[in-house]
């Protein structure tokens, strides 16, 4: 997996709404009505992540889910991160 350049990251980010660049990761925050709804979303995220064998860091704060995505093995963002992010946007 090749780490993306700054220009490639900017291009990919422009096509991946809801995500923002934070250091060497992309981050999305999603708010739900309650904890149960947030957990149902996290379970759907887990299914997609397992299917793609690429897993985000997930932080749950009652009704708020924060997804952080990077490719640790590449030391930064790769195409896989943006592919996963776009799949998660479809949930």
From TrEMBL:
Residues annotated as transmembrane: none
Family: Belongs to the pterin-4-alpha-carbinolamine dehydratase family.
Gene3D superfamilies, alphabetized: Transcriptional coactivator/pterin dehydratase
A Pfam family this chain is assigned to: Pterin_4a
Signal peptide: none
Protein's name in the database: Putative pterin-4-alpha-carbinolamine dehydratase
PANTHER family (alphabetical): PTERIN-4-ALPHA-CARBINOLAMINE DEHYDRATASE (PTHR12599:SF0)
Organism listed in the record: Actinoallomurus iriomotensis
GO biological process: tetrahydrobiopterin biosynthetic process
SUPFAM superfamilies linked to this entry: PCD-like
Superkingdom of the organism of origin: Bacteria
Entry GO MF terms: 4-alpha-hydroxytetrahydrobiopterin dehydratase activity
EC number: 4.2.1.96
């Amino acid at each position: 997996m090749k780490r993306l350049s700054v220009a490639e990251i900017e291009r990919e980010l422009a096509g991946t709404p809801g995500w923002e660049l934070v250091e060497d990761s992309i981050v999305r925050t999603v708010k739900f009505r309650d904890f149960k709804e947030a957990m149902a979303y996290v379970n759907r995220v887990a299914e997609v992540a397992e299917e793609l064998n690429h897993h985000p860091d997930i932080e749950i704060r009652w009704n708020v889910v924060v997804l952080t995505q990077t490719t640790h093995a590449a030391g930064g963002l790769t195409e896989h991160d943006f592919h996963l992010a776009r799949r998660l946007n479809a949930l």
